[in-house]
Amino acid sequence: MDFLVDVPEEQIRRERNKARELRRTQWWKNRLALGRCYYCGAGVAPKELTLDHLVPLARGGRSNRGNCVPACKECNSKKKYLLPIEWEEYLQNLQSDKGRE
Fold first, then answer.
1. Whether the Cβ atoms of residue 49 and residue 37 lie closer than 8 Å to each other
2. Residue 79 to residues 21, 29, 73: CA-CA distances in angstroms?
């Protein structure tokens, strides 16, 4: 599957800069202080949480409050370029595979 869309590199660069700015806001600091991964719900030290875009920048996502969530490094690395619905399907498949073992 080809997950990437034709998003101009300049747009991605602009959105990454916005994400850096967003990380400095009190809103983001409050999200980190909760110490929870958005995806797996695990308790994580705030300094170990990363900013993840629900809709990835490479797929047209934006760096705004509605699209950015704290994620543990493991979930962020596994999610990569998946959209929320694709991530849910991935997790369901993992659970199904565990049930068959």
1. yes
2. 23, 22, 10
Rounded to whole angstroms, the Cα distance separating 68 from 54 reads 6
pTM of the shown model: 0.85
User: 87 near 40, Cβ under 8 Å?
Assistant: no
Q: What is the pLDDT of residues 3-49, one digit of tens each?
A: 556 889 999 999 999 999 999 999 999 999 999 999 999 999 999 99
* 49 φ, ψ (degrees, to nearest 5): -80, 145
pLDDT digits (tens, 9 = 90+) for 73-86: 999 999 999 998 99
- Sign (positive or negative) of CA dihedral 21, 34, 58, 73: positive
CB 52 within 8 A of CB 68: yes
φ, ψ of residue 28 to 5 degrees: the values are -70, -40
- The domains of the chain, with CATH numbers, are 9-100 (1.10.30.50)
